[in-house]
Write a structure and sequence with these properties.
seven-stranded mixed β-sheet, alpha+beta, 35% strand, 7 strands, 5 helices, 171 residues, 35% helix, globular
Amino acid sequence: MSYLIRKANFADLSTLVAMARLSFIQAFTDGNKIENVNAYLEEAFTEEQFAEEMENPASVFFLLEVEGDLAGYTKVNFVPAQTDLHNNSSLEVARLYLLEEFIGRGLGKVLLTHAINFAKLNRKKYLWLGVWEKNRRAIKFYEKHGLSVFSSHPFPFGDEIQTDFLMRIDF
C-alpha cells in the first residue's frame, strides 16, 4: 500500500470538507442524536469554516492519500489557534480522522506519527488533543501510541454538553 501525506491547500477545500464530513458521520453517529451530529456539521464542517481555518497561519491541515484516494486528514494548531491550553511549548491535534474503509491498516498511526514529528520539527515539548470520553476506540488508540489523559473539558454538541478527555504525549 502506498500513501502520501501532504499539506492541504485551497484547491483541496471541497474534497477535504466532503471527506471530513463523511469521516465525522462515520465516527460519531453511533451514540449521538442525529440532530446533534447534523447541527455540529453545519457549525464546524462547512467550506466557509474550513477556509477560515486554512487561512489561519497557526493551523495546518495534512491530507493522507492512499494510492491516490483521500483516506484521512489531521489538523494541527499552534498558539493562538489552540482550543484549550495556549501553550507555546505544545502542538494541538485538533482533528485526526480516517474514512472507515481505511481504519485497521495502520494509517491512524501514520497520521499521528506525522503530527508528532511535525511537533518535534517545530521544537515543541509535547503534543495534546481532545477526545470524546465515549470514543473508546480512539482513546485506546491514543493510549497505545503513548498519550495519556491529563484533564477533561466540556464540549458543546448540539443540545448536549459532552465531556472530552485531554490527552498528551511528552517528547
